[in-house]
Specification:
Layout: E1 15-25, E2 34-37, H1 40-48, E3 54-58, E4 63-65, E5 70-72, E6 76-80, H2 82-85, E7 93-96, E8 115-117, E9 122-126, E10 128-131, E11 141-143, E12 155-159, E13 162-166, E14 171-173, E15 178-182, E16 185-189, E17 195-197, E18 200-204, E19 207-209, E20 214-217, E21 223-227, E22 230-232, E23 237-239, E24 248-251, E25 254-255, H3 262-265, E26 269-270, E27 339-348, E28 361-366, E29 371-372, E30 378-379, E31 385-389, E32 394-400, E33 407-411, E34 416-418, E35 424-433, E36 459-462, E37 466-469, E38 481-483, E39 486-489, E40 495-501, E41 513-517, E42 543-544, E43 550-556, E44 570-574, E45 584-595
Parallel strand pairs: 1-37, 2-3, 3-6, 4-7, 5-8, 6-9, 7-10, 8-11, 9-12, 10-13, 11-14, 12-15, 13-16, 14-17, 15-18, 16-19, 17-20, 18-21, 19-22, 20-23, 21-24, 22-25, 25-26, 27-35
Antiparallel strand pairs: 1-45, 27-31, 28-29, 28-30, 28-32, 32-34, 33-35, 36-39, 38-44, 40-43, 40-45, 41-42, 41-44
């Protein structure tokens, strides 16, 4: 019964620079993604194939009754969608093994495990229920040891979760495997162990209770670190062997009997019994995403855990106090109160500006969940606009609007932050008019940036912020890609335009870059490398054959108004690309206009 049954901008006058980032993604590139799955079949497919580091988001309140064991063959995170869990009343998704007929390929022998972590991969789980596991199976969650060729075994990290009502052990950690279980409940493994531990297990702020076998079955040489954890009412004993210096460590835990030994109960208690004065009889909905065992005010578990930051919240995500309780449930835990962020817009129009705060559109983004927070987007206001930041989440405030090109923006520290405590925060965006700036870019260009060098002379360099090239095969050459870098000046002495770039990241560290002119209008002249700077124009389309890193490619000798100017787009040509490793390779090209 306790054995295996199935056997994650100017400042310096006269100089203006704009950077264009070139990003190449070569064939074979594999990048982690966040994958939303809504059905059991989608979950099975997302686990079976993808990129290392993928995050799978489950829908709240949904039971994913998978029909085959989920074999984890890459580093992977599975979680209930954090944004959905912030909606009042939503609860964690469940993964059920009750209808599994397809056995695990990573746990041979026909085993119908719910999920298996293969070596040397890491599975991270947040806010999920595992239930309905059936036989033959080695566990609802199985963590494999090393491959025959050696190396590391599988690794499981699970928190704020529930393993309940499984006709199989809750977690099976095989020899060489590792598992860390935090702020979770493992219960009602019907006739089986809560934890079958032949490898290494760390249990922090957990409740392991009322399983049909042992709470922690370390009969196979497993090493257990047990901290701030309740073990109660496990039929065959809370531990198979006592936790000692020879096979583990820990403290501040409660053992309803004596089988786990005095090491882990130092600071906690042993022989507590299983009565209602210790923990509730069953795990129920006590708030939060998953069911928990509540503890009463008189329980020996109250106030006897080690102090934060061991765990700042309990299984429900509620805030523990300065004297936390033992186990996954914190009696009297505080409901997180979101941060109240005030976003204020200040516009400084000295020198001729006319913009109002409302001409700027403000957006507050929750960078933890990737969502835009209400009432975003909203018009800027010098009276301030309030935005609620969910507790525990990080945020960033950004601005947009046609007037941004005419102003230098500055933001206070509170425009980014993390809601780590119940508090208020403030963000002030100050926009200062750029004296001599052009009111709007010329209609004939696709300019999106306007900058001044000084009051007497305006140099405007415009370009998009990011140019992405299509995926290329190894040894391939990119097609010419038009990059609208537009330059104009009202300085009678003109300007000289220089180009520099950083080497591409990756191996090899450089990729050939050539720059060809596009529509170059008179009196604009190109300064060919090694040649003189002069007023005579070159025909449109004259190529610049020299590759970087430094190119001197232009000079303007005619005064022009900010509203006119040259429409001078360049064409980048990258390649040919040598043998290069797969992946994303990045270089920054900077255009610097220098007035005389």
């Amino acid at each position: 019964m306790s054995r295996r049954a199935g056997v994650r901008h100017l400042g310096a006058p006269l100089v203006v620079a704009v950077a264009v980032t070139l990003a190449l993604m070569f064939a074979g590139t594999a990048r982690a993604a966040t994958i939303a799955v809504h059905t059991p079949a989608q979950l099975q497919a997302a686990v079976a194939a993808g990129s290392p580091g993928d995050t799978i988001n489950l829908d709240a309140n949904i039971v994913y009754a998978v029909t085959a064991s989920l074999d984890v063959g890459r580093n992977l995170t599975i979680q209930t969608d954090p944004a959905q869990l912030k909606i009042a009343g939503n609860r964690a998704a469940s993964i059920s093994g009750g209808v599994i007929t397809g056995a695990s390929a990573l746990d041979p022998g026909g085993n119908l495990d719910i999920i298996v972590v293969g070596a040397p991969n890491t599975l991270t789980v947040h806010n999920v229920v595992f239930t309905g596991g059936l036989q033959p199976s080695n566990g609802a969650i199985v963590v494999n040891g090393p491959l025959p060729a050696g190396g590391n075994g599988g690794t499981l990290s699970i928190d704020h979760s529930l393993l309940s009502s499984n006709s199989t052990p809750g977690v099976d950690v095989k020899t060489g495997g590792q598992a860390t279980v935090t702020n979770s409940t493992i219960t009602q493994s019907n006739g089986f162990d809560g934890i079958l531990l032949d490898g290494t297990g760390t249990f922090n702020e957990d409740t392991i209770a009322n399983n049909g076998g042992n709470g922690i079955d370390n009969h196979g040489g497993g090493i257990a670190s047990v901290n701030n954890t309740i073990l109660s009412g496990n039929t065959a004993g809370n531990c198979f062997f006592a936790i000692t210096a020879a096979n583990g460590s820990g403290s501040h835990s409660d053992d309803s009997g004596t089988s786990c030994g005095p090491m882990i109960t130092t600071g906690g208690a042993s022989s507590t019994g299983t009565g209602a004065g210790f923990i509730a009889a069953t795990a129920t909905n006590n708030g939060g995403p998953t069911n928990t065992y509540a503890i009463p005010a008189g329980s020996v578990a109250v106030n006897n855990g080690t102090a934060p930051p061991t765990a700042s919240t309990d299984q429900r995500g509620l805030i523990r106090d300065a004297t936390p309780d033992i186990g996954a449930f914190e009696l009297g835990a505080a409901t997180p109160v979101a941060v109240d962020l005030t976003v204020t817009k200040i516009v400084v129009n000295t020198g001729g500006g006319t913009a109002l705060p409302s001409d700027f559109t403000m957006t507050v983004t929750d960078t933890t969940t990737g969502t835009v927070l209400a009432p975003s987007p909203f018009p800027g206001s010098n009276a301030g606009t309030h935005v609620t930041i969910p507790a525990g989440d990080s945020w960033v405030v950004t601005e947009s609007g046609a007037q941004t090109v005419n102003y230098t923006a500055g933001s206070s520290p509170g425009c980014t932050g993390s809601a780590t405590a119940n508090a208020t925060a403030s963000c002030t965006f100050t926009n200062t008019f750029i004296v001599g700036s052009c009111p709007q870019p010329p209609a004939t260009t696709s300019a999106n940036t306007c900058v001044t060098a000084n009051v007497a002379a305006t140099i405007i360099v415009t370009a998009p912020g990011n140019i992405s090239f299509p995926a290329l095969p190894v040894g391939g050459t990119s097609s010419p890609t038009a990059v609208p870098v537009n330059v104009k000046s009202n300085d009678p002495l003109g300007y000289q335009l220089n180009v520099t770039r950083t080497a591409f990241t990756g191996s090899p560290p450089d990729i050939p870059l050539s720059i060809g002119s596009g529509a170059v209008s008179f009196p604009q002249a190109l300064d060919l490398p090694g040649g003189p700077i002069g007023p005579s124009p070159n025909p449109p389309g004259t190529p610049i054959p020299t590759s970087g890193p430094n190119l001197n490619i232009g000079h303007n000798t005619t005064a022009i108004t900010p509203a006119a100017g040259d429409d001078w787009p360049f064409t980048f040509v990258l390649g040919p690309i040598p043998q290069i490793s797969a992946g994303q390779h990045t270089s920054v090209v900077t255009f610097t206009a220098v007035a005389f």
